[in-house]
Write a structure and sequence with these properties.
332 residues; alpha+beta; 5-stranded antiparallel sheet
């Protein structure tokens, strides 16, 4: 036989062998799919690699020799739990520079638990300047008359969290923007957008006005919650209104949380006593903000209608999410 003929025979034989191998592979695939002759194929080919019939992985069951997922037993993929520091210690301070303003032109606007607020001029723009005396604030934190520099350093995350959370959620029309910060030896200052108007602390509004305020407040809170920030001190005193637009102020006790699992929040919660549920151990910052919004609506409403009362009750029960509140008939 010539070399050419021998080579031709070899090629044909090899081709048929490969075809037979493919047939075998197809038969094996049929077995894996649970074909009726799977038991005979198992004798010839053995069990498929990676599958031992007598030791089935958790969440699987055997039907006619074929592995299939058991709906009742199969566990859904669990999301990796994300550890979120409530004070945002792992987040860098916003690099916004030191605000430039004229000390002689500062005008006192008011004072809160965490600091004083002034109006100032910032590149020709009227701004609000929040000034926190670090020594007096840490002294209040620690309930002692004098504190050391080391104690102030240790409590700086609680002072800086307001700037971090406000920068994190800025961009919403009902939340002031921040322009810069100044961290000196004695003071921590935040320059932010000036909010014209008056506080709603001692204001009674008509149904239409209260509805306008509530609609904007829920929108601001929804924005914060979607970004993983709880305000945690929602009350009329922290809302400024100019007759058309509100600004949600004072993020001094705000905290970060995982927006996908807000119920896992583990930080210490503060806030104004009257705007927190009295007999609840609720730690979900989303629900606590909703509760504060409900108390706020009750206090700013001159004569709450039945629809307004339904919104108030839903907030105080802390069983209704903001998106559901926004769909209630009160807002039609």
């Amino acid at each position: 036989m010539s070399k050419f003929a021998f080579g031709l025979v070899f090629v044909l034989f090899h081709t048929h062998l490969l075809s037979f191998g493919n047939v075998l592979e197809d038969m094996r695939d049929l077995w894996l799919q649970g074909n009726w002759f799977s038991s005979r194929l198992q004798v010839v080919f053995g069990k498929p690699p990676g599958l031992t019939i007598d030791r089935i992985p958790s969440g699987f069951e055997i039907n006619s020799g074929v592995p299939s997922v058991s709906v009742s037993q199969a566990a859904s993929p669990q999301r990796k739990v994300k550890k979120v520091d409530p004070l945002g210690k792992d987040l860098p301070m916003p690099d916004l520079g030191i605000p430039t303003y004229n000390q002689d032109e500062l005008k006192f606007l008011g004072k809160g638990a965490s600091g004083s607020v002034f109006s100032a001029a910032y590149y020709g723009l009227k701004i609000a300047l929040k000034e926190v005396n670090k020594w007096s604030l840490v002294s209040r934190f620690m309930n002692k008359p004098t504190v050391t520099e080391r104690e102030i350093e240790r409590h700086m995350p609680k002072i800086e969290v307001e700037a971090k959370t406000m920068h994190h959620v800025c961009g919403h029309p009902n939340i002031p923007r921040i322009f810069g910060m100044d961290n000196s030896m004695e003071y921590f200052r935040i320059a932010m957008q000036y909010a014209p108007g008056c506080s709603l602390e001692r204001v009674k509004l008509s149904e239409q006005e209260a509805k306008m305020v509530m609609r904007q407040l829920l929108s601001a809170l929804q924005h914060c919650h979607e970004l993983g920030v709880g305000h945690l001190d929602v009350k009329p005193a922290n809302i400024v209104w100019d007759g058309q637009t509100i600004k949600l102020l004072d993020f001094s006790i705000s905290r970060f949380f995982d927006p996908e699992v807000p119920e896992n929040f583990e930080g210490a919660l503060e806030g104004t006593h009257e705007y927190r549920p009295r007999f609840s151990q609720e730690q979900n910052p989303v629900l606590l903000d909703i509760y504060g919004a409900g108390v706020t609506l009750r206090q700013i409403s001159r004569e709450p209608s039945q629809q307004a009362q339904e919104v108030i009750d839903a907030c105080l029960e802390m069983r209704t999410w903001i998106i559901e509140l926004q769909q209630m008939s009160y807002f039609d």
